[in-house]
């Protein structure tokens, strides 16, 4: 069942890329379609420095025909300033071959969105770990893992723009109107509705009902021309829960594919391979694990740290995220 399921997330907004989302000229919040489009474009521009990429199957050779021609920004654009140790950043850059992104500033609680995110994160983490005992006893989750995945899969937009509820009136790109927190743009949950049966064990009854509610449904066409079905959520707390469920399902599949050896994997391997599954999908993840072996994460990236060239490659994508997770795990205290 799982192997044939749709990939958990195939969203890959490159710099300046837009998405075609099926909707009427006015959405359910009364937002003109043009404003919704402008919001997406603005959000992508704000996140351009991160270039959240899709995964290709083979990253052994440099690519010459890539979609994004955006230069790598000179200054990291991944959030607010933080006091993370430059020495640790240098060590992680050497370890993975890619610089970790710093998201520590999002844990300052400086606005309502940050405060609600910080408050929800321990609850969501505890809920998933409780569910894992019945669903997949060999897996567990840390708050740093869930926070890293949420932020890098699009939650960055919400935290950076202080957006915490659908229907909230915001001004973007010179236009003002209510916004919708949809799984495609903000949560990296492009295929949540397509995979709701697989996600159900990882979701509360409230989230299961939302996922099944036709009035919350969002249909989108991704950058590969594939039609995907997701939902919009009402609150950032629901968004975190949905993103975390996608991550949990991915880890469940990783553990199933790895078999008995999974329990002995280091934390780096578990996060790396969960990210491979999350972005590439079950088929790609299983193929790469069989081909490359569990220690693939130990091979540092040796080509330039250039998302314009490499943002569609598995190891580049997943190594910078793993580097980012380790920095967060070692520098952020989550109560």
The SSE string, one letter per element, is EHHHHEEEHHEEHHHHH
Main β-sheet, in a few words? 4 strands, antiparallel
Low-confidence regions = 1-38, 43-79
Instruction: Give the count of helical stretches.
Output: 11
Report the count of strand segments: 6
Structural class: alpha+beta
Distance, first to last CA: 37 Å
Report helical residue fraction. 40-55%
The count of domains is 1
**What is the mean pLDDT?**
79
Q: Strand percentage, roughly?
A: 5-15%
Query: In which order are the strands of the major sheet placed?
Result: 1-5-6-4
> Radius of gyration, rounded?
18 Å
Outline type: globular
What does this structure look like?
A hairpin with a 5-residue loop joins strand 5 (217-221) and strand 6. 45% of the residues lie in helices and 7% in strands. It is of the alpha+beta class and 335 residues long.
Topology, element by element:
Blueprint: E1 20-22, H1 33-46, H2 86-96, H3 112-135, H4 143-161, E2 169-172, E3 175-178, E4 181-182, H5 196-199, H6 205-212, E5 217-221, E6 227-233, H7 236-258, H8 267-280, H9 282-292, H10 307-310, H11 314-331
Helix pairs in contact: 2-11, 3-4, 3-7, 4-7, 4-11, 7-8, 7-9, 8-9, 8-11
Keywords, please?
single chain; 335 residues; alpha+beta; two-stranded antiparallel sheet; 11 helices; 7% strand; globular
TL;DR?
This protein is an alpha+beta fold.
């Amino acid at each position: 069942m799982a192997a044939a399921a749709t990939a958990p997330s195939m969203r890959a907004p490159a710099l300046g890329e837009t998405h075609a989302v099926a909707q009427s000229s006015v959405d359910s919040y009364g937002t003109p379609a043009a404003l919704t489009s402008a919001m997406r474009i603005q959000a992508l521009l704000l996140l351009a420095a991160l270039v959240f990429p899709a995964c290709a199957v083979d990253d052994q050779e440099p690519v010459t025909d890539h979609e994004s021609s955006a230069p790598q920004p000179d200054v990291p654009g991944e959030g607010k300033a933080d006091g993370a140790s430059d020495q640790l950043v240098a060590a992680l850059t050497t370890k993975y071959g890619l610089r970790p992104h710093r998201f520590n500033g999002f844990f300052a609680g400086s606005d309502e969105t940050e405060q609600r995110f910080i408050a929800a994160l321990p609850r969501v983490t505890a809920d998933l770990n409780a569910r894992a005992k019945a669903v997949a006893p060999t897996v567990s989750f840390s708050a740093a893992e869930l926070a890293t995945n949420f932020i890098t899969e699009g939650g960055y937009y919400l935290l950076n723009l202080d957006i915490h509820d659908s229907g909230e009136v915001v001004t973007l790109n010179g236009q003002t109107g209510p916004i919708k927190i949809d799984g495609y743009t903000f949560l990296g949950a492009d295929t949540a509705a397509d995979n709701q049966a697989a996600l159900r064990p990882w979701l509360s009854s409230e989230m299961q009902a939302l996922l099944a509610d036709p009035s919350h449904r969002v249909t989108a066409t991704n950058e590969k021309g594939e039609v995907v079905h997701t939902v919009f959520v009402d609150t950032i707390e629901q968004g975190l829960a949905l993103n975390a469920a996608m991550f949990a399902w991915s880890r469940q599949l990783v553990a199933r594919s790895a078999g008995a050896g999974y329990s002995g994997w280091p934390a780096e391997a578990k996060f790396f391979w969960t990210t491979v599954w999350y972005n590439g999908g079950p088929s790609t993840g299983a193929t790469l694990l069989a081909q490359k072996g569990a220690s693939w994460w130990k091979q540092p990236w040796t080509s330039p740290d250039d998302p314009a060239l490499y943002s569609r490659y598995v190891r580049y994508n997943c190594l910078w995220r793993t580097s980012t997770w380790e920095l967060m795990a070692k520098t952020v205290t989550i109560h």
